TrEMBL record:
Protein's name in the database: Luciferase-like monooxygenase
UniProt record similarity statement: To bacterial alkanal monooxygenase alpha and beta chains.
Superkingdom, taxonomy of origin: Bacteria
GO MF terms held by the record: oxidoreductase activity, acting on paired donors, with incorporation or reduction of molecular oxygen
GO CC term, one of those recorded: cytosol
Length: 334
């Protein structure tokens, strides 16, 4: 296998529609449009949004609605889900929603599917009700979704209108090895959440590649890895900006979630040694640097992973600094 180079590697955006301290959710959506338009000009391949619920710092709960909003304000970039948590919905409803999106924005919509609830267990019960254990049906529901979106369902008693015949590209998302087996056996592209669940990343992509079965939609394995990047014109400024990300993850570790906080000069006195260790473990695949150091880091990452596409998520408080971070990433990867 020939070694991949940074230049020519497709690069994409994951947007959690983060809500920022001192700003409104409307500001968040405006910033997402601004970032998507910026990413499109910079040559980013796709712009994905993730389904989460009951989190004060994440506003992408109505994921398909937000995908339509972003697609409507851009022209060429692919827009999709990273992902839709399929057990929260029925396959027919998702087929209709994404079939509608694909009809309005042809050849631009992606459908990434996850198994987790995207929230806590109490909220998951409110979402799923009697279907609380529907995640057990995930493999069968993916097949149903493929059927609804395919060309051969026209004589079925239940059809997705719109949706049928759109063949919206389906991805399997994962943060564990279980999803790797499913993506491999179905012959689907595989997107791994290495930005928050780095522990099983290498094992999962190895399982996926070794067990991959070619399908009508994909002849060889395709791995997309999502990573955190905080880039700035200097290493020191990137380190300062990254404190917002570290405080966000500290909120996840301590279960004391807050809106994205402004950066600070130092995390000293903000977190304990135990909290710091837990956050740093979650941030294994996080790149905080100026342009030169970032290029070295990403080259090393690509050498060790041989991923086919890099997806970047950047939790940066100041919107202009966030736009600049994505600009630097594009400069490094072009």
């Amino acid at each position: 296998m020939s070694e991949k180079k940074l230049s020519g590697l497709p690069y994409s955006v994951l947007d959690l529609a983060g809500v920022i301290e001192g700003h409104t959710i409307a500001d968040t959506f405006n910033n997402s449009v601004s970032l998507a338009q910026h990413a499109e000009k910079l040559g980013y391949n796709r712009y994905w949004l993730a389904e989460h619920h009951n989190m004060i710092s994440v506003a992408s709960s109505a994921t398909s609605v937000l995908i339509g909003h972003i697609a409507g304000h851009t022209k060429t970039i692919r827009v999709g889900s990273g992902g839709i948590m399929l057990p929260n919905h029925t396959p027919l409803i998702i087929a209709e929603q994404f079939g509608t999106l694909a009809t309005i924005y042809p050849n631009r919509i992606d459908l990434g599917l996850g198994r987790a609830p995207g929230t806590d267990q109490l909220t998951a019960f409110e979402i799923r009700g009697e279907r609380f254990h529907s995640s057990q049906n995930f493999p069968q529901d993916v097949r149903k979704l493929q059927q609804y979106l395919g060309d051969d369902n026209y004589d079925s008693r239940v059809r997705a209108i719109p949706g049928e015949g759109t063949n919206v590209p389906i991805w399997i998302l994962g943060s564990s090895t279980e999803s790797a087996h499913l993506a491999a056996s179905y012959g689907l592209p595989y997107a791994f959440a290495s930005h928050f669940a780095p522990t099983h990343f290498f094992e999962a992509i190895q399982i996926y590649r070794q067990n991959f079965r070619p399908s009508e939609v994909l002849q060889k394995p395709y791995v997309l890895s999502c990573v955190n990047v905080v880039a700035a014109d200097t290493d020191e400024e990137a380190e300062r900006l990254s404190t917002s990300l570290k405080m966000l993850f500290m909120g996840i570790v301590t279960n004391k979630r807050r809106l994205l906080q402004p950066p600070v000069d130092s995390m000293e006195g903000i977190w304990s040694d135990i909290e710091e260790a837990a956050v740093e473990q979650m941030l294994d695949f996080t790149f905080i640097a100026g342009p030169e150091k970032l290029k070295e880091q990403l080259q090393s990452f690509l050498k060790h992973t041989q991923v086919d596409e890099l997806m970047v998520t950047s939790h940066i408080y100041d919107h202009q600094a966030r736009l600049r971070s994505y600009e630097i990433v594009a400069e490094v990867l072009r």
